[in-house]
Amino acid sequence: MYVAKMTIGGRAVPGTTTFEVKNPSTGQVIGTAPNASNSDLDSAVSAAQKAFTSWSRKSDDELQAACLAVATKINAHSEELATLITLEQGKPLNGLGSRWEMGGAGAWANYTSGLSLPMKVLQDNGQGRVELHRKPLGVVGSITPWNFPVMIAIWHVLPALRTGNTVVLKPSPYTPLATLRLIELFNEVLPAGVINCVTGDDHSGSIGAAMAAHPGIRKIVFTGSCATGRKVMQSAATTMKRLTLELGGNDAGIVLPDCDPKAIAEGLFWGSFINNGQTCAAMKRLYVHESIHDDVCEHLVAFAKSVPMGDGMSEQNMLGPVQNRMQFDKVASLVTDARKKGELLLGGEAGDGLFFPATIIAGLKNGDALVDDEQFGPALPVIRYRDVEEVIKAANDSQNGLGGSVWSRDIEHAKHVAGQMECGSVWINKHGAIQPNAPFGGTKSSGFGVEFAEEGLQEYTAQQVIFS
């Protein structure tokens, strides 16, 4: 049994009550995490405010060195953290699973450590000198989801630290253990109070909501659902917090008629079913030209049948369970509705516990729930189309606008189609391949603000212009 503690001001804090954390593969309790009180949150914010005084005054070189030390610590404990991720999140150790997540976390930490926002001279002439400086905001509140508990924490925290901010982080109650351990490791190389972690079960009082409204927190970074993002935005309005919101996606993939169905099958599968479809920027809707629709479905189903699913701790498995019962029930409901309207090509029947097989359903259209609603799970609708202009319109017929993809042998034509898609990122002949040197963010209800690269780093700073 893993007994986790919060980290507040560099100290391990048990909390007055705890909640259980279960392995979604087995249903067994694997650990406990503390239920933070509002007093614990106040203590964490106070510790971060106190640490900000000295942390924000460190030189750019000192901040970079500290962040590199964090990256080294992450890499040194990669296997330990990967095991915790698999136990509480369910994703397999192998494939695009928890070891892959930890590899991504280390890569992002290293890359972000090397970024910088130097002073810019806007004018220097007889009329005077004008300089643009970037200054840290203060205490940043990070609220992370359950699908990538370590990697998304790195996405939130490293740019905050790199720009001289301090942090209070709250992980999902479904997957708090790896994140709590991660922050313990951070505190082995960072000054006390620079990064703090509080947890709660979201039933006995929402620490996340309290963070969004807390007057001592100057920015909230949130990754999660559109509905919760709206609540965060409303709560943050009273204190005029800065916000970065990476919310839900209902990404469309468009397969043009010149594709080789067999050649793209593997890419289509993992673009859709990475982390069992529990990925914001996974492909949630697949539009295939009528001339190759049946062949694409045939090869996609054939590849899907070759991917083993089971307990993530078994080295041979490549897909795991749906992480929690609420999400499982949503996927099952959408699939039940879709089976009445379309043609079930694969899967469709719930397995034992939280295991839901990779499911592919053809014959659906815009307006059907599995097409219109983000399933966030292992169920893919395949929609037949005839005209390219019509399919672009269908792809854009969504409240979301996170990502999209175009599949074609003609790269220039694919780029032309991509340019008409209403989303923050578009990939050609792949899907969801985010990287730390390219800004990432959504449009419409998928949130605002960007993460990654220099543009993401800027979001953790305030501009100050000095005229002399």
From TrEMBL:
Family annotation (SUPFAM superfamilies): ALDH-like
Record key words, sorted: Oxidoreductase
Catalytic center residues: 246
The keyword Amino-acid biosynthesis belongs to this UniProt entry's keyword annotation: no
Record's catalysed reaction(s): 4-(hydroxymethyl)benzenesulfonate + NAD(+) = 4-formylbenzenesulfonate + NADH + H(+)
EC number(s) stated in the UniProt entry for this protein: 1.1.1.257
MF (Gene Ontology): 4-(hydroxymethyl)benzenesulfonate dehydrogenase activity; oxidoreductase activity, acting on the aldehyde or oxo group of donors, NAD or NADP as acceptor
Segments forming domain Aldehyde dehydrogenase: 17-465
Class of enzymatic activity (EC top level): oxidoreductase
One Pfam assignment: Aldedh
InterPro entries, per the entry: Ald_DH/histidinol_DH (IPR016161), Ald_DH_C (IPR016163), Ald_DH_CS_CYS (IPR016160), Ald_DH_CS_GLU (IPR029510), Ald_DH_N (IPR016162), Aldehyde_DH_dom (IPR015590), LUC3-like (IPR044086)
Reported function: Involved in the toluene-4-sulfonate degradation pathway. Does not discriminate between the sulfonate and the carboxyl substituents and can also be involved in the p-toluenecarboxylate degradation pathway.
UniProt subunit comment: Homodimer.
UniProt family annotation: Belongs to the aldehyde dehydrogenase family.
Protein name, per record: 4-(hydroxymethyl)benzenesulfonate dehydrogenase
Lineage of the species this protein comes from: Bacteria, Pseudomonadati, Pseudomonadota, Betaproteobacteria, Burkholderiales
